[in-house]
Amino acid sequence: xxxxxxxxxxxxxxxxxxxxxxxxxxxxxxxxxxxxxxxxxxxxxxxxxxxxxxxxxxxxxxxxxxxxxxxxxxxxxxxxxxxxxxxxxxxxxxxxxxxxxxxxxxxxxxxxxxxxxxxxxxxxxxxxxxxxxxxxxxxxxxxxxxxxxxxxxxxxxxxxxxxxxxxxxxxxxxxxxxxxxxxxxxxxxxxxxxxxxxxxxxxxxxxxxxxxxxxxxxxxxxxxxxxxxxxxxxxxxxxxxxxxxxxxxxxxxxxxxxxxxxxxxxxxxxxxxxxxxxxxxxxxxxxxxxxxxxxxxxxxxxxxxxxxxxxxxxxxxx
Length: 318
Prior knowledge:
The protein contains 16 helices and seven strands. The protein has three domains: 8-125, P-loop containing nucleotide triphosphate hydrolases (Rossmann fold, 3-Layer(aba) Sandwich), CATH 3.40.50.300; 131-192, CATH 1.10.8.60; 201-315, Up-down Bundle (Zinc Finger, Delta Prime, domain 3), CATH 1.20.272. It is elongated and about 75 Å long. The relative contact order is 0.09. The model has no long low-confidence stretch (mean pLDDT 92). By secondary structure, the protein is an alpha/beta fold. Strands 2-3-4-1-5 form a five-stranded parallel beta sheet, sandwiched between helices.
């Protein structure tokens, strides 16, 4: 193809922002002023007819540029339409680019294989970034927007907004408008971004294990419908993990922590970091406090008082 583009692309993955960016770049390749004539955008609904798709794909563009046929929700394409596209890709229109947009599409499907066969870069992977890599990714995205966001501020933003990159991008742009300096701090995020995401138990446990009582209380207050009994069970399990990690660290066997806890290395980073701030004696006191709290909850004591006491003991076992 003279434009340097492939005949077809599959933009697939749950990272909506990345999918939208890829599609935006394809739209930008349309000849200026003729976009309305050379873009055919449709959704894979039950009303999508194979003949209509075939006609659209084989239509010549207006002007000297390309024609773009964009099909959203490609994972819902009916078999008849899918087979039409597969047959078309055997001899595609050299002046047309097909873009299939899908959150998910199995690699073993005929449609996926047909698009992948078009070229090495025909499948644009938009898989979401792993949670543990997301703060660094958000900081990098902020730099692309002309901002400086450190990892601490990025983690705070994710904690408040969630992991959806579309929402994160929107809030980063809000911060850019509201902050006087391009260097955005955790305090800026706390000041301008309201918490809309549900607090995840692991986030609460990591903060508690790190000894940050102020932030632990803040997260606890935003945990809706949280059961004290369930939270105490989670805290007790985390204490036992810390005891295991601390014991191995004291024996110079830190490399065994992940295997002993039956986790991946990245999954125990917060446990290892928190264990450095505790001694075996302090962790045993924390475990005892868990047992006391559990007993009080079962005996009818004031749940809030018993649970908050546990939090303070965890953050300051002495």
